[in-house]
Known about the structure:
This protein has three helices and seven strands. The protein is of the alpha/beta class.
Amino acid sequence: KDRTICMLGAGFSAEDIGQMAAKFGAKHIHMCSRKPWFMHKGWPENVTFHTGLKEIVPVESDDGMSWGEEIHLTDGTIIRDVDDIIFATGFQCRFPFMHSDIAMNDMQRHLLNYQLYKTVLLPGNPNVAYIGMQKNIIFTMSDVQARMVAWHFTG
């Protein structure tokens, strides 16, 4: 709340986290990525979209007592006075603790989501559920999926 955030990344996670930050009172949100944004309508006015991240530069405060960061963009824009930098730059799905018959990996993730019942329950094994593995709307959908799985396992 009341913080200026720089979100690095252009995927669904970055969008979800940015929307949640706006919902919970961020002062300003800078959405930064290397590639152009596909602009969706309905973003709050305190969200600014930037393309072309160049570097993050550490900057010493005027009194020499602390450090901060400047975000430099390829068009010459410099974003200052950022409270938090969030790296939403991707992830890999691996479950090395699970048996290979039921573990999902990055290659399977794209195909398996279409085979999972309601994109959550593993067909043929009603004891395995994957929450949050879809490629979009991470937080909202994960909440709905968690409720469905809780209902499934508790009857």
